[in-house]
Every structure is written in C-alpha cells, then in structure tokens.
Design brief:
about 160 residues; 2 domains
Length: about 160
C-alpha cells in the first residue's frame, strides 16, 4: 500500500473528506469524527490511547496499544489561571472542580456522547498529569526548531 498525506484546513474538513471518499482515512480527534461514526459514514479502527474509547451508541473503540507497544500521550484540555492571581481565585476554582466537575454525571454523559474521555483533575494532580505531556511537546518543538521559546526559559527541562 502506498499512501500520501493530504493536508486540510482543520480536523472537520479532513473528516468530511474521509466520509465523502475523497481520502481513504483520517487521524483526527474523536470528537471531530463522532457524528460521522454514529451515522455510519466512518469506521473507527483504533484510538491513539492505552484504553478503549467509549462513545454512546457504538461499540468501544480499541486502543492502538492493543496492536502496538508504544507510549501514547494523553490530550489535556485545561483551565489555566495566571500566576499571581489572588488566592481566593485559586481556592474558588479548586472548590468548583471538587464539588461540581470531578463527579459530574452530566459532564461524563456529555463527553461520552461526543467521543471525549472524561478524566478530570485539578491542582497538584492535574499538574502531575499534564506537565510531562507539555514538557514532551515543548521539547519536541525545540528539537524540530519550531519553539518560540526554549522550554528551559519557563522551567521545563528537556532530556539530553
């Protein structure tokens, strides 16, 4: 099989191209593909993760680690507060996360319908989970010559 990469202006145009047959496959975010999967226009083969992805109404999508022995980096979406904000701001956000977000059935259902994983965290736990991923990406960007700043300037140490 020979393949060539076709660039699109974003995930949704790439998904539409795959669903219409313009291209044979796409590797976009599950949240961009979910509606086409549910409609039977795309067939999910694997998710770039180490656990299956569950989307309401379809069979779980197996992780790529079922076939390949690779490390997969999770995707994180976050709410960030600038350094130096009043302590009350940090405390309030932590309280909202602990009381409303961490065990929210509504958010879990929302994620499950749309092809997103629901694994919330906050504070020290969130930093412990996200900083290694951010460091790896920042160091990879430096290695590729794409970094605007050296990761060391913001306290991220790249492996030698």
């Amino acid at each position: 099989m020979t393949a060539r990469m076709v660039a699109y202006d974003g995930g949704n145009p790439a998904v539409i191209a795959a669903a219409s047959g313009e291209v044979d496959m796409t590797t976009q975010l599950a949240v961009e593909q979910t509606e086409m999967i549910k409609a039977g226009r795309l067939r999910p083969l694997a998710v770039l993760a180490d656990t299956p992805l569950e989307i309401e109404g379809i069979d779980p999508i197996p992780p790529v680690t079922k076939w390949l022995d690779i490390d997969v980096a999770p995707d994180y979406f976050g709410v960030f507060i600038p350094v130096g904000a009043p302590q009350e701001v940090y405390d309030t956000v932590d309280k909202v996360w602990a009381d409303k977000v961490m065990n929210s059935e509504a958010l879990k259902h929302y994620a499950n319908q749309r092809g997103a994983s629901f694994a919330p965290s906050y504070g020290d736990e969130a930093r412990a989970r996200a900083i290694p991923v951010a460091t790896n990406e920042a160091c990879a960007m430096k290695a590729r010559g794409e970094a605007v700043k050296d990761p060391a300037e913001v306290g991220l140490a790249c492996p030698k």
